[in-house]
């Protein structure tokens, strides 16, 4: 793609931005940054394998912000998985919908970004980090901010449901700020649902502060329609003795880019990142993760696994920074892939920058086919070929699923994964 | 039960089997011996349906059905069992889960009700005694981190669970110490009946002290060049294979 089209996409995106009263300064700064930088072109190292701009140019004709669409309570209910009885926060094309949400007086505070402007918005997910964060910062409308006060343990998980439908394209810009204060605990679950098969561009930003000794779990399912283009910017600041765990399971979509950053800001904190992508058709999923060890005695664990069929494509890029101060760091990273077709592709790249000298860091990646010998062994015991394949792939994928914190959500994803692995793969 | 006629097979263009003929009847134990590279393991693999081998000529009839036409899983469901020379390690799949899937798929094929968890576990416990296998191994990933002896015992344990008609033991004795060999052979002997048959592929006569064969066949250059009783095995133990090679080579000149 030429610079011309790159600018064209940026201009289109910026030209359609509505006027706002709130967050004026943030929006202006993000806008001028975006005008200057533009959306990433093909030569941009960070987006080398995932040319979102080109994809947008091909698929999206309308860059105006998506309005809310008709969404019924029944529709919402039909997307709640079995056994779930926690709070539900509903987004309609990126707009928070209080009427369709369900709250049970759990001790946290939720405010709409429409009516208030929390000071920390944009402080964790800084727009300078990525043009898509900048784009979201310019154009988000009706997001939310969640605050969990000191020492509060939220007993039931909170489910965020994003319903998306944007005819002829259009841009959906969900924005979520979460602040979990000292010693607090909460589990978030997230699912995005396409309401039809038309393309849209969803450019989401989630920023999370995990304060001292707080514990946060965030598990996501990405199972949108085959034309959805998604950029997910997820940034967390993790403070002293706090833990944060992310699980992302990607099953469908046209092109997905997940930017996940863990900033380990103090000693004793721990960040965990798990990912599973099961891809078929021409689905393209790119997981870019970034963990920044800044202080001693912190730990990070990362495991991403992928099964790729048909003409699908996966990208994994895992950056680990260990700064000079961060002695006694433990950082582990692993990316394993199984390619089921000759036309499937994976680009995987670990990127370690270690400035401290007393650390334990390891990384590894493997890419291979399904183990034919193992397959034959199972068949030789009377297990049919399709089931045998499913059994082997499920054993491979299960290692990621077991990190999902909520049992019901895990069972739900487990059944989706088993169904996928037992059939088309 | 099993009739092999003029079986030829090759791998990547190399001819390995060059006309095997063998007849196995219910209740019989056949030992197949021979020097390295004579085609013993190839024969076992071809019977179990390993795809790398191409059958170029001949036929194999198992209980009236064309075995070579069947997928590996259907051969197993019909009652053919191969105890692997090198059992495969499968991380993430527990032995119990794997066996329950296998047993129930075999039962389904044979028109039997699937076993529920309770019934399955009680059968499993009973069969485990047969090969003195440790309960702890059952919940671990299949063969992962098992010792050589544990892997071979696990093979015989699986055989006990699947109740095959024809068992093919591919060098099950290789690498086993005497105690393990005794346990494995005991298991095999207890599973023998007048309706089942066993083919024992081995390098060593030692195994045949425990599993006593009705017939011993010597495989050389892809053919069965000599057949006899268990005395033939003793003779091979004493004299090695050279005299057989010489006989064969002299005959072909």
**Shape, per Cα inertia axes of chain A:** globular
Main β sheet profile of chain A: 11 strands, mixed
- Tell me the Rg of chain B in angstroms: 18 Å
Helix content of chain B: 40-55%
Q: What's the helical proportion of residues of chain A?
A: 10-25%
* Structure annotation, total helices of chain A: 8
Number of strands of chain B: 12
Strand order of the largest sheet of chain B: 6-9-10-3-11-12
Radius of gyration computed on alpha carbons of chain A:
21 Å
Please outline the major beta sheet of chain B: 6 strands, mixed
Characterization of this structure:
The complex is a heterodimer of chains A (425) and B (253). Chain A is of the alpha/beta class and 425 residues long. Chain A folds into 2 domains: 3-266, no CATH class; 371-425, no CATH class. Helices cover 21% and strands 39% of the residues of chain A. In chain A, 52% of the residues are buried. Helix content of chain B is 42%, strand content 28%. Chain B contains 10 helices and 12 strands. Chain B has helices spanning 40-48, 72-78, 95-109, 117-130, 135-139, 148-162, 178-191, 206-210, 230-239, 242-252; strands spanning 2-11, 14-24, 29-33, 53-62, 65-66, 80-83, 90-94, 141-142, 166-170, 197-201, 215-220, 223-228. A 6-stranded mixed β-sheet of chain B has the order 6-9-10-3-11-12, with helices on both faces. Chain B has a 4-stranded antiparallel β-sheet with strand order 2-1-4-5. In chain B, strands 7-8 form a two-stranded antiparallel ribbon. In chain B, 43% of the residues are buried.
